[in-house]
Amino acid sequence: MARTSDEIAAELRAVLAGSARFDPGTRALYAADASNYRQVPIGVVFPRTEDDVAATVAIARQHGVPITGRGAGTSIAGNAVGPGLVLDFARHLNKILEVDAERGLARVQPGVVLDSLRAAVAGDGLTFGPDPATHSRCTLGGMIGNNSCGTHSVAWGKTVDNVRSLDVLLADGTRIEVGATPTAELDRLCARGDRTGRLYQQLRALRDDVGDLVRRSFPDLTRRVSGYNLDQLLPENGFHLARALVGTEGSCAVVLGATVELVPSPPVRAMTVLGFPDSYAAADEVPRLRGLAALAIEGLSAELVDVVRQRNPSSPALPLLPGGRSWLLVESGGADRGETEEAARRIAEAMGERAQSVIHTDPARMAALWKIREEGSGYSTRMAGSERWSGWEDAAVPPERLGSYLREFDALLARFGRRGVTYGHYGDGCIHVRIDFDLLSSTGAREYRAFMEAAADLVVAHGGSVSGEHGDGQARSALLTRMYPAEVIKAFERFKAAFDPEDLLNPGQIVRPRPVDADLRLLVAPPRLPTRTALALHADSGDLAAATRRCVGMGKCLNTTGGVMCPSYRATKEEKHSTRGRAHLLFEMLAGRVIGGGWRSPEVRDALDLCLSCKGCKSDCPVDVDMATYKAEFLHHHYRHRVRPAAHYSMGFLPLWLALGKHAPRLANRVLTGPLAPVLKRLGGIDPRRAVPRLAARTLQTWWSDRHRPNGAATTRVVLFPDTFTNHFDPHIGRDAVVALEKLGQAVEIPREPVCCGLTWYSTGQLGTARAALRRTARILRPQLDQGLPVVGLEPSCTAFLRNDALELAPHDPDVAALAAATRTFAEWIEPTRAQWQRTATGPEALVQVHCHQYADLGFAADRAALDATGTRARVLDSGCCGLAGNFGFERGHYDVSIACAEAALLPAVRDAGPDTEVVADGFSCRTQLRQTTGTEPVHLATLVARALDT
Q: What angle do CA 452, 458, 463 make, to 5 degrees?
């Protein structure tokens, strides 16, 4: 195969406008999707043009290599992985070719992201109806392949109901446009003697042979996604070949383009939230709601809400739920507020005393509730100390059978000794569930298969479908014989053969399937390396393998707007620079089959090189992947007993160099900005385009030592932590903090000895040095800690480190634990006193850039309240990471990505602001990026509080 792989690679590279990659790193990245399965491809093609697709298919056919299409890689059924060539359509073939708002149509390439299409047509009051939870990154091609549905299917149906025509390529190179086929047109096509004619002849014969069988044996169900859509060949459905191809999972033809139908989107929405004593009671009432013109009827379980409450007690969604232990989120819409609220009231009145109800019309409140529902598949993967998996993910039954099905399904779980939390599209009888299968052992795999077969029998007994949304794939194709009679299975095989007689396109999906317990990722690629970590990794009991299994592939890190995760992916659009990609590479590194070299792996090193350690994933990822921590662990092993990159010595040891520089700051500044600066930057691994920040003339600690303390009895004592950045670069912020605290009658203490949390060593993987610095600081502060004094931090990255990462670095040190417990942000400490300095908002608004580590670890509620109290008209930017991220933006090779991250939202917002607009940025990295790119001089919250107390 190696020789064949090399030949294919050479042939592809000779003809493609796009790229073809056959390296171990890319193959490892594309070996998994969001399912339980793993198949390593021989290579991945990123076509730029339709001709690239045709050339790839031709070369693959010549060599007998199968082809698997891929969009966002969020398939839960395992139909986006394959052993041959993977075609990634999302990279380049992602354009909206035409929008005809008057006719309600859009023509798109297969890699178009759903939210991009919805944004493009929103101005015309239109939308594309199907909207899976992955709408921010899933592609239209993937949705067509899986026949995706989503939250609003009760109103707008499945993808199959919203496709007008498809432009497809067959495995033999034939390209055809397919859609509804009137009888006269069908006769004309069948009369042709070419490949297209033979295709239509075979399909018409198939329809004539099995039409009555299809009518009898296909379940009468809105969410029947399993199997091929042979019903679309029936005369009553217009022999709609495009819709027959929807849901074929890339196993019959390659989609080059699609014309999809758009629907009017009600401009005003409302949500009626109904509370029930349990999930069964909620399910029993669904039929009563289906006739009330609801746009969505979604179910939430108490267990799912409990996870949110545990992870984020301050979640804005929690107070919005009425009483109960199970909830239905019922959305209504209308042309205006009155119409919409009336529809919501009708829904609440229809329930009467059977449910507690509350109506929400505020878009922010509704978005908070939808977030719980959309991220349920992530939240539910780690519950009650167990790992939970997809597989039996999205079965559907008629809505009127939903209550009885759920009762029997829970009994089935109990019989197998398994736990799972059900939630999902109650309005269409489609239920999502993640179950604590044992996928790590052969015995567990056999039990997994037994459960899947029993569950399939149960859903079929209720008139349902084993898949109601995500397609069959490897997870469920082998179960189709339990859902359909043998004659229908034969008909599926005939349908596939008409399009792809050589079985080159995504083989093993729907027909001639692989077993559901084959290719299980955890079983076929167990770790070969020791997985115990140097860091405590409390969330995963010190096991890196368990940490890598957190990523279930749902791909929220592929979002390009909102939140922080993942800045390097947003800048590069490369899978390996996403949180998911890095987690998958670490998994494969531990397995040692595709990625060689263990901890010395260059593939993993290169992927982590552009990780900004921003920690955005720690808060934005629904399964709490913490890539910054994994990166520190990897760098620790990768460079152990080896020479490190120059930046690890120059910036990793920054506290040491600054301790020397404080004795001659003017000289240091002259050297670092003079003729020797380029040489020093080169030696230090610093990008030549970066200016080295100037050292302050006096450090904060020097100022404090020389300062006369105010007299008078202080009511409170507080330790102000002189972090490296405030102490040496921005001591004016520390001085403002001291002034503010003293004006509030507090006695401030600043350590006279050098203290450091160890962050710069930690982020470069120098864990031993970082631990020593941290423990030394904790010992210095022990007297104050023993007295119960709080330690207030001004630099968010250092404050977050002391509170959280310190416990991972030195988990058994009682002084470190005491320091972590005592650490407070400046806002947390000052906000309760705001009544003493409350000011009325005046003047222009201020832009606020929240530091990533604060966003991930510390929260911003206290800061928001404190900003309001200073009289600042704050507009908090949803701008993601500033891009500097500590040492990252200074390192050679990172400058372009660093600036691209800032240009995504932050820098344009600052440039567009008025000349009197202040920019609030508590993080030194954020301030430095803004200073060096815009000339702005940002302010710290401490300065604003000092101002407020001075007026």
A: 125
